[in-house]
Write a structure and sequence with these properties.
Blueprint (H helix, E strand, L loop, with lengths): L6 E3 L3 H5 L4 E8 L3 E10 L3 E4 L7 H10 L8 H9 L3 E7 L2 E10 L4 E9 L8 H10 L6 E3 L6 H6 L22
Parallel strand pairs: 7-8
Antiparallel strand pairs: 1-2, 2-3, 4-5, 5-6, 6-7
Helix pairs in contact: 2-3
């Protein structure tokens, strides 16, 4: 039996955790870490668009469904939802949608942040933070509300504070309307 420990290359977590930077990969051994010649690769560029020109709404629907973030809207309903928003941001990697965020606002004092989503493989890279910051920049002087039970620490880092009282109502049947 050999005394040499089997070597396993590191998983590509570094490609998910550190976008747009050169990342170093090492080779790990089971009992200790051994540094081998460094391998560098460039992470894909993330493009943020605040206009909705050329959004592929069918791709968005498919991607949301595959990533378990689909709330039942059709591609046409997604388009109407985003186009009727005060502001929206869509993140892309290699022309593939990897994030969305939008805000509803009266343009004066009240706004509501909705549809904040990042494709699972690209989470914890600052994509949602960047999209939200782009939207918040357009909402000076307004009270911005959101409803979430998912990663509240993201929102507290951005300055949101918990406001425990909230109410809601669906009129008629969810998503059955003229759109």
């Amino acid at each position: 039996m050999s005394n040499v420990m089997p070597q396993v290359p590191c998983k590509d977590w570094c490609s998910v955790k550190y976008p747009r930077r050169l990342v170093e990969k090492s080779v790990f051994q089971f009992k200790h870490i051994t540094q081998h010649p460094k391998v560098y690769f460039e992470m894909p560029e993330i493009i943020y668009k605040t206009d909705l020109d050329n959004v592929d709404w069918t791709e968005m629907k498919t991607t949301l469904r595959q990533d378990a973030f689909d709330n039942g809207r059709s591609p046409e309903q997604l388009k109407v939802s985003f186009e009727n928003s005060y502001a929206a941001c869509v993140a892309y990697v290699h022309n593939r949608i990897v994030g969305t965020a939008r805000v509803l606002s009266d343009g004066v004092c009240n706004a509501y942040l909705v549809d904040v989503w990042t494709l699972s493989a690209y989470r914890r890279q600052g994509i949602a933070t960047t999209m939200i910051q782009k939207l918040l920049h357009r909402l000076k002087g307004q009270h911005i509300y959101l409803f979430t039970d998912d990663v509240p620490e993201l929102y507290t880092k951005l300055g949101f504070v918990e406001q425990p009282i909230g109410m809601g109502q669906v009129i008629g049947t969810w998503l059955e309307n003229e759109t």
